[in-house]
Amino acid sequence: MEILNFASREGSPQRSKNFRAVFGVCLLVSAIALGSTLAANININSGPVEFGQGVAQTTACDSQITVTPGSSFDNSATPSPIPTPSDATGVFQLGTISVSDIDVACDGKIFTIKAYAQSDSTPLELLSGVSEIVVQDTGNDFSAVTGGISVDASDGSAFTVTILVPTLNSSEVYKVTIESGDTVTSYYPSGPQLNVPLSQLTAAGWTPCFENNYTDETTPVSDALNNCTEPYLAVFGRAVGGDTALLLAAAPREDVFTVTAENSPHLANGTYWYYTPFMDGDAQSLGFSPDGVINQSSCDFEQEVGDPTSPYRLCWHISGDVEPTFDDGYRLGIEYNPDVYSGGYLRDIYQHN
């Protein structure tokens, strides 16, 4: 029996099967199999659908934690296997995970959530390139360790994870595991991150290797290549004098500086990276995106303010056909932010061995 059987097996889905899972969280993984279903109406394109009814366990940091997964309906996707009639479309995808009733005994812990198919011990990708979702319990709030998600917390006892670009069809999921552990001792986040304190980077051993202003037009890209030589790099933008990386992603150095063709980013550590120093036309830029769809001209553009992926896109202009040089602009989150041309924002790279 599948744990989260959100989608109909035959034809275009007409309703959801609702479940609620109450998971015990301890230092060991607890695998939960849900056994009963409740019908519910689906309001297509109105947002995630929540699920009800499950089981409870007593655990080390809390006697009972409630976990409520939710799905969203993609009316344009084609189910697999191909249904009858063959032109039927639409699948349910895992879109949100709400965790509530968290006791203060879990303060300082991290929660790790994974999903599995019925006969495979390898975790499924909960979002593109990412097989686990990790959330930090800071005591009064919760923060995302994994990129490609947002975490909303009403108070210190509950949070909701939203997968920004859902990719996992609910029909693939057979079981879900959740575990708690100690605070992350090193920092190597998967996927783009928002609002990371610089102190979190330095405490984990990251050191600065490159910095210039978003308005700078004279710094050669070779300065970054020659100074940032450690195996891992964290690329981000921040305000001048600020102590927070407003948008950050980390990956192996070879992936950050892998030369890519126009609009052809590659996936590394949950982030799509591109570096196009030479190209006929306008495609000269370096940056990252939460998904593989970018529009280099010469920086990634077109994702508007309302696009859920827009806040997770960073792009630095490059000019020059002989010596690639960082040019002014362009992007730190939303598609076009005039603030980056004000001189008040910096391009930064930190490195780690």
Short structural description:
The chain is mainly beta and 353 residues long.
Model description:
The structure is a single chain. The chain is mainly beta and 353 residues long. It folds into 2 domains: 16-181, no CATH class; 193-352, no CATH class. The chain is built from 3 helices and 23 strands. The longest helix is centred in the middle third of the chain and has 7 residues, at 221-227. The chain is globular. It starts with 15 loop residues before the first strand and ends with a strand. Mean pLDDT is 76; it is low at 1-58.
Biggest pleated-sheet summary: 6 strands, antiparallel
In what range is the share of β-strand residues? 35-45%
**Share of helical residues:** under 10%
Terminal Cα span: 44 Å
Helix/strand-derived class?
mainly beta
Number of discrete domains: 2
The number of distinct β-strands equals 23
Low-confidence stretches: 1-58
State mean pLDDT (0 to 100 scale): 76
Form type: globular
Number of helices: 3
Cα-atom Rg, whole angstroms? 22 Å
**Series of H and E elements:** EEEEEEEEEEEEEEHEHEEHEEEEEE
Question: Which secondary structure elements does this structure contain, and how are they paired or packed?
Answer:
Elements (H helix, E strand, L loop, with lengths): L15 E3 L2 E3 L6 E3 L5 E3 L8 E2 L14 E10 L16 E10 L9 E7 L16 E5 L4 E3 L4 E7 L2 E6 L11 E7 L11 E5 H6 L3 E7 L7 H7 L4 E8 L4 E9 H4 L9 E3 L2 E6 L8 E5 L24 E6 L5 E8 L12 E8 L1
Antiparallel strand pairs: 1-4, 2-6, 3-13, 5-6, 6-7, 7-12, 8-9, 8-13, 9-10, 11-12, 14-17, 15-23, 16-17, 16-23, 18-19, 19-20, 20-21, 21-22
